[in-house]
Design a protein that fits this description.
Largest sheet: 3 strands, antiparallel
Number of domains: 1
Distance between the termini: 11 Å
Shape: globular
Number of helices: 9
């Protein structure tokens, strides 16, 4: 099963199988819209999900992700998601633990990894004046090697599913 992670700067932070990461973004979409539909969440729901974050978008995206974590803290894990028992019974199919008290706990690695990817992108830029965008990537070597050198313009024009969800 394809593994997915956050890429930023000089590091990849592996999150787990693609369905787990898709579930994170499904929850992000559902609960941010429900909690604060007037706010623009597109830095996370479009830019991060489907494309990449530009350098000037890092701080605003980090601030939004802090808000998402706060929203997820209010959502009990057991009743906020319909957990697929077959998926969760097999650690190869899911790295998530739905027995955690809240969605923030279930996805804590995602929040920490996102902050780390943003920090890595900033440090690479500060040290070498090179910005390697923060984005969601296939984290296994073959998939990452294939997608690493795709022009950013290809991501900018992307419609539909993100690259990391395509076969």
């Amino acid at each position: 099963m394809r593994k997915i992670g956050f890429d930023g700067g000089h590091s990849i932070y592996e999150l787990g199988p693609a369905p787990d990461v898709a579930l994170f973004f499904d929850c992000l979409n559902a609960y941010t819209e429900e909690t604060n539909h007037a706010q623009d969440w597109s830095l996370l729901t479009d830019r991060l999900y489907r494309r990449y974050l530009r350098r000037e978008e890092l701080e605003p995206a980090l601030a939004l992700m802090v808000q998402v974590r706060e929203i997820f803290t209010q959502k009990p894990a057991a009743s906020s998601v319909e957990w697929d028992a077959a998926m969760l019974a097999n650690p190869e199919k899911s790295w998530l633990n739905p027995s955690q008290p809240t969605l923030a706990d279930v996805f804590s690695k995602y929040f920490e990894s996102f902050a780390s990817a943003c920090g890595s992108a900033k440090s690479l830029f500060d040290a070498f004046d090179i910005y390697q965008p923060v984005r969601v990537v296939i984290s296994d070597l073959a998939g990452f090697a294939r997608d690493k050198n795709k022009p950013l313009a290809e991501y900018d024009s992307l419609e539909g599913e993100p690259v990391w969800l395509r076969e």
